[in-house]
Every structure is written in C-alpha cells, then in structure tokens.
Amino acid sequence: MTITISGQDLIDAGLRQGRWFKPALEAANSAITQGETFDAALAIAAGFAPPPALALRAPGALPFYANIEAETPEEEANVEAVKKTMTELLRTPVVTAGAIMPDACPSGPGSIPVGGVVSSTGIHPGFHSADICCSMAITVVPGVSPAALLDAVHKVTHFGPGGRERGKQIRMSDSLLESFDSNEFLKDLVSVAREHHGTQGDGNHFSYVGRIKSTGETALVTHHGSRAPGAKLYGKGMKLAEATRRRVSPETLGSNAWIEADTREGEAYFEALQILRRWTKSSHYAIHDLALSVLGVAAGDRWWNEHNFVFRKPNGQFYHAKGATPAFKGYADDDIGLTMIPLNMGQPILIVRGSDAEHGLGFSPHGAGRNLSRTAHKRSMGDRPVEDIVAEETRGLDCRFFCGRPDISELPSAYKSAASVRRQIEHFGLAKVVDEVLPYGSIMAGDWEADAPWRRRKRVG
C-alpha cells in the first residue's frame, strides 16, 4: 500500500490551511515516491507554511512622544482623541516609534493623525495618504510689489478639480517623463501627470504672497501636493499593502497596512515616491516661473520642503510624516537647513531651522491644525452671511477664492490658535523660527463644490 500525505494530515499536524497546501502536498508526496518516510515528507510539507501571523501589541506597550498641550476645552477633546488614535496605531507590529506635533488632530479611529510621525520597518501608504508630498515652496522676488505678484499668480495658477486642458499644459522635463516611464507604479500615469503639472487642487492648498520680515522683499509661497498622480499611486500602494496585511497580520487595521520594503515591489514603490517628490517640486516652480514671466522678472532665493511624505533614515527605518515638517539635517539632497510652517491666511508663514529633537523623531509641525472638522466649523458660524464672515476674518488682506465662492472652512477661525502652536514649537524645542513671511494676500480654491455639475443638475431637477 502506497503511503500518501493528505491535507487532513497537515491539519492534524497543527498547520493552518491555505493556498500553500497544494504545492506542499505535491512536494511531500513526490518525496515519498523517492523513498522518504512519512515524517520526513511531512517536514518537507511544513516548510511551505507561511510564517505565523504577526500579532498586535498590547495597547500602550509602545509609548509615543506627545509634543502638544491643550489650552481650551475643545483642544482637550482633540488631544484626547489624538492620543487614543496613536495608542491604537502603535499596536501595529512593524511600527517602532511615534510622536505627535502641536498641530495634531485625529483623522479616523486608529489611523495616523494629521500632525503625526511614525517610524516603521515597512512603508505604510495610509500614513502618507492620497496627498503624497504635500509641500511648501518659496520664491523671493526682489523689486516687485506684493499686489503685482499676487495678480500675476492669479493669472497663471490653477485651482479646483481636474487639471489643465490640452494646449495649456505645462511641460514636464524629459528626465521626469523618463522616470515615470521606467517605474512600474507610474508608467501608466504619464498622461495624468502632464495634465496636473502646475495645478494646486483644493482644500487647504494656497498661493500666498507677502514680505520677508528681515528684508522687506516680496515672496511667493505655494502649498500643494502631487495631485492626481499621487492619489493614483496611493491607491496602488494601499492595494499592495492590504495584500501584505491579509497575509502577514490580519489583525492590523487596514489603514495601517504596510508594504514590505525589502521586496521588489517595496523598492519600486519607494522609488515611485521619490519620483513624485521631484514632480511635485517641479509643479510648484512651474507656477512660480509662470508668474515671474508675466512680470518679466527673475527669481531670487528659493527653496522648498515637503510635510506629508516618507523619509528613510540611515538606521534603515522609514519615517512617515503625516502633516509634519522634517527637522533633521539631510532629510533630502536639496535640504538647505530651512523649512516653512504656515499657520493661516492671516498669519505669517514661519521660516524655521529644525532642531532634530529626539522627542519629535526629528520633525516639527506643518501648520496650525484643526480642533473641529470642516463641517463642524461651518455649523459653528451659524446663519451669519458668508460675506460678513469673510470680510471680518480677512480685513486688511487681499484674500481671493479662485472658483468664486469663499470657503469659510479655510478662514483663520477654522484653525487652532496660531500663537499657541508657535508657543508650543518653542516650548518643546521642535524648531527655531529664524524669519517670517508677513501676509499681504492669498489665493485658495474656494467652495468649488457649491457649483459642481452634479449640484447644478440637482437644483434644476
């Protein structure tokens, strides 16, 4: 009688059933036909078993740094929610450290909060979100008035959904195009990358014009990310991370799933992030250069920094900044030692030098953050006319909404106290303010959804 090994034999041996059973049984029974014993063949089959699932840590087993203080009842609720979120997130088995910034606010149960920093041995697409490489870029423009510069930017920038029409697109460099073509995650995104190059989107993204406090020179600062190419890469990354989560750690929340960095896919995904970083920088300066060409002037100093990205440090760890500004030396090849932290349209943009504080994991805040959601903030304004709210909160400033309708969820009152955030940056030693861009005016998308096609059809119907 010929001895064979069945799936039941593997189950009886305490092995978990899965797709690996088929090749395992084929190898085991092939070994038996070649003279191996039942026990030896069973050991061969067991070698096909996937590693045991990585279990979640116990809540609180991995502590985190909390660089935040509540100064109002609203902030107390916000801080409590952020801490609860981080406690749950740090149960993720490959995460190694975490920190929250003074501008932190929750973004969903167990998900990384805005204003959060997490280090990990894996790459977590959910930690950089769809707005990959959301960033700040500045160009100093000597000899030009803020009013002229803001008008020039308004002529050339692009806010709202979608990208630029054919014939009006801003050319990408040949090297960027080649990089997209050579990356497995980006090669099908060349068309959308062309369309969205030199666009700013919506939400809290802006073009801001002001004067450098130390010199009086006019400066343009833009804030946006990688737009549709980034959103599409994020979708691909989440799909890959989810497959890893199901295989390696089913208990891990889907929002915290990771890509294994030492795999071919992991290396290609990290490379794609770096290419999108170059694309986003190019997108910022395409807008800046168009505005300068309108005025017929040359750029002075310029630099930029991202605050929604993944950084790999020499220790091999991946540091995920979800709304946090790098404050450690050499975070990128183009690091000049200065970064920017915006607060709100009525406040200066802080120019800072990072402190590389251990308790901040080498990061500082990225802005002022929120205590209330956009919807809750709008509700708090009651029935006051939008025009009155805007006039009161933007008095003395030239604040524009590209799509026509103001978005009151982006006014200064929608954000945490700028003075409080600035005070906490100093208190926790996260960065040193070395200069400021004093506000003259800004452009934001505005409430473009109010006149979105589907809303117009609904009103007509």
Summarize the structure.
The chain is built from 14 helices and 14 strands.
Contiguous uncertain segments of 5+ residues: 452-461
Percentage of residues in DSSP E strands: 15-25%
Category by helix and strand content:
alpha+beta
- Quote the average pLDDT: 94
Radius of gyration: 26 Å
Reported for the largest beta sheet, the result is:
12 strands, mixed
Q: Strand-and-helix sequence, N→C?
A: HHHEHEEHEHHHEEHHEEEEEEHHEHEH
Helical proportion?
A: 25-40%
Oligomer: single chain
Envelope shape: elongated
What is the helix tally? 14
Q: Give the terminus-to-terminus CA distance.
A: 78 Å
Number of strands: 14
Structure description:
By secondary structure, this protein is an alpha+beta fold. The protein is built from 14 helices and 14 strands. The strands form two sheets. Strands 1, 2, 3, 4, 5, 6, 7, 8, 10, 11, 13 and 14 form a twelve-stranded mixed β-sheet that branches. A two-stranded antiparallel sheet has the order 9-12. The longest helix has 32 residues, at 264-295. The chain is elongated, with a radius of gyration of 26 Å. The relative contact order is 0.14. The model is unreliable at 452-461 (pLDDT under 50).
